[in-house]
Amino acid sequence: MTRDDHVDAFEHTMQLSYEWLRAYAEELGSGTTQLAYRCLRAALHAIRDRLPANESASLAAQLPLLLRGVYYEGWRPAHLPAVVESVEEVYDEIAADLEGGPHAAPRDVLRAALSVLNERIDAGEIRKLRHQVGEELRRIWPEPPLDVPPPLPVV
Asked: Which band of pLDDT confidence, cut at 50, 70 and 90, is reported for residue 152?
């Protein structure tokens, strides 16, 4: 393949997406990117479905292009955010999404995703998202530190 056969934006998003997956796998305690992918996808969908459309789009804009596509898979923008009566509902949704293949404990899946989001997304954006997901989910989503410099922009 010649250099003309490559799209720099695709190469960059592949690299960045794998960086996110490796960080997530490490946080999850899993050595495989395949399991990390399945779990991160399930966690992102669970978070996405509890956000209003505008906040959901704001979160997506912070993700690498490839993971943004994963995030939007199956999304219905006209949906109303699911009200979280208990965090167990979120864990149950994640468990159902992971059924039939390699999986991890839903608590760990969500905890690892929230941690990676806190590390890789602007703290101000995380604060807005935490405000929108409801009290039950906010209880387990750690507040981002105040003195963290903003992450590098995602392309």
From this structure: low
Distance, first Cα to last Cα, the chain: 24
List the Cα angle 42/98/100 in 5-degree steps: 155
Instruction: Enter the tokens of residue 98.
Output: 């992971």
Chain CA centroid to CA 10, Å: 20
Structure tokens at 82: 């699911």
pLDDT at position 103 is 79
